[in-house]
Amino acid sequence: MTVDASQGWKSSGWFKPVEIDDFVHHFDGWTWDWLDLPALIRRADAAYENPMIDRDPIPTWRDGRVALLGDAAHPMYPTGSNGASQAIVDGRVLGAALVAHGLSPEALAAYDEKLCGPVGQLVLRNRGAGPFGLLNLVDERCGGTFDDIDAVIPPEERAAFMAGYKTAAGFAIETLNAAPPIIPAGARVTLA
After folding, report:
1. From CA 54, how far away is CA 123, in angstroms rounded?
2. 106 shares a domain with 66
């Protein structure tokens, strides 16, 4: 369920209890001979709201001798596990910048220059890419109702869509496996 949060997130708390009747209607019609999802949800002892929230990209992650990384720099939808993965990449790129430039504002500037813009674009791409983007494409083409997914989106098109996402997100396995280490073995940070 997507909500308009243009004025900020109005709800207080994360992962908070919610009444089943407040949301179960979103699953009306999700009934098959092997699964009645609304009935299954109604039998739950408890339900929780756990919003997925991102933020529009910001122009820089640094200010003098302070830099943000991970969700502090770029909260994004956890599409394809890239929220956590990107925080690891941030730390490694920041480490490499510190090795190259010492403990200095220049290191933070190099880190910011390398990642802030591209990761900001990834945040925006996550809104319509990855598995969610593919689901949106299915919905656009057939309203989400189909008997054969291959007739809606052929396997080659699905693979190309996800390959484009993986490349943009930095998850292209062959590229990652062929890349040299970000921080050379034995590298040390010097004080600037």
Report:
1. 7
2. yes
